[in-house]
C-alpha cells in the first residue's frame, strides 16, 4: 500500500480518485492547485502524485518541475486534452505516465500500481538480475553469464528502461522520448536499430526483449 497526493482543482475528480485509492488500502492527501501541492510535498513524503495539468495559480508542469528540485516522486499527469505536445513536454520534464480525462478510475489505479512498483524497484535494487543477465545500476555495467558486455550508452539506457518496466508494452514513441529525449529528431528506425544491437549484445537473453506487434517492445520475463 502506498501514499498518494492527488492534485486537481476539481473536487469531484479528487473525490473519485480518493474513493478508489482508499478502497484498495492506499492513503490519500489532496491539493487543489500546484502551489498547495508544492507545500504538501515539502511537508510530507509521497509514493506517487496524480496531478492535473491545467490548474489555477500554478499549472501541473510548473508545479512538478519545482517538486523535482527537492524530491524524487513519480507522477501521473491528468489532462482534459490529448494533444501530443502536452505528452511530449510532460515526458521531457520526467513524468511517468499521462492519462486523458475522462478516465477509468480502475485503469488509473492500475497505472499507479505499475508506476510505484517500477520506481521502488529502481531505487531499492542496485542490481537487476534475470537468470544469467545482470545489470549493475551503480556501475552501469551489464554481465551475461558473468562475462562483462561492452555496449553503447544508448544500448545500456534502453536496456535499463525496458528492464525497469518489466512486462509492460512500450511504444516506440515512448522509448524515443524516455531514452533519447524530447529534443531528439529520430524515428522508429532508431529504436529498431538499437533493439537489434541490444539483442545481439545480450546473446541468449535476447529472449526477454519481445516485439509487440503494432506497438513496440517489452521486456517479458513471465511465461
UniProtKB/TrEMBL annotation:
Instruction: Provide the Gene Ontology terms for cellular component.
Output: cytosol; protein-DNA complex
- Every Response regulatory domain range: 3-116
Residue ranges of DNA binding: 125-221
List modified residues, type 4-aspartylphosphate.
Answer: 52
UniProt KW keywords:
DNA-binding, Phosphoprotein, Transcription, Transcription regulation, Two-component regulatory system
**Could you identify this protein by its name?**
DNA-binding response regulator, OmpR family, contains REC and winged-helix (WHTH) domain
What are the BP-aspect GO terms?
regulation of DNA-templated transcription
- Spell out the coiled coil positions from the record: none
An annotated Gene Ontology molecular function: phosphorelay response regulator activity
Answer yes or no on keyword Phosphoprotein.
Answer: yes
Ranges for domain OmpR/PhoB-type:
125-221
Give a yes or no for keyword Transcription in this entry: yes
Which Gene3D superfamilies does UniProt cross-reference here? 3.40.50.2300, 6.10.250.690, Winged helix-like DNA-binding domain superfamily/Winged helix DNA-binding domain
Amino acid at each position: 500500500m502506498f501514499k498518494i497526493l492527488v492534485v486537481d482543482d476539481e473536487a469531484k475528480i479528487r473525490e473519485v480518485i480518493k474513493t478508489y485509492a482508499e478502497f484498495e488500502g492506499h492513503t490519500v492527501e489532496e491539493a487543489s492547485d500546484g502551489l498547495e501541492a508544492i507545500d504538501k510535498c515539502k511537508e510530507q513524503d509521497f509514493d506517487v502524485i496524480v496531478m492535473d495539468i491545467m490548474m489555477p495559480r500554478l499549472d501541473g508542469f510548473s508545479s512538478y518541475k519545482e517538486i523535482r528540485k527537492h524530491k524524487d516522486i513519480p507522477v501521473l499527469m491528468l489532462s482534459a486534452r490529448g494533444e501530443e505536445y502536452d505528452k511530449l513536454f510532460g515526458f521531457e520534464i520526467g513524468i511517468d505516465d499521462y492519462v486523458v480525462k475522462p478516465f477509468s478510475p480502475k485503469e488509473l489505479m492500475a497505472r499507479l500500481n505499475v508506476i510505484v512498483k517500477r520506481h521502488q524497484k529502481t531505487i531499492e535494487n542496485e542490481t537487476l538480475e534475470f537468470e544469467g543477465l545482470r545489470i549493475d545500476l551503480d556501475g552501469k555495467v551489464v554481465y551475461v553469464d558473468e562475462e562483462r558486455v561492452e555496449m553503447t550508452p544508448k544500448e545500456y539506457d534502453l536496456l535499463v528502461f525496458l528492464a525497469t518496466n518489466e512486462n509492460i508494452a512500450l511504444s516506440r514513441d515512448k522509448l524515443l522520448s524516455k531514452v533519447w529525449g524530447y529534443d531528439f529528431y529520430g524515428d522508429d528506425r532508431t529504436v529498431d536499430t538499437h533493439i537489434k544491437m541490444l539483442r545481439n549484445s545480450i546473446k541468449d537473453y535476447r529472449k526477454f526483449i519481445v516485439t509487440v506487434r503494432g506497438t513496440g517492445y517489452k521486456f517479458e520475463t513471465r511465461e
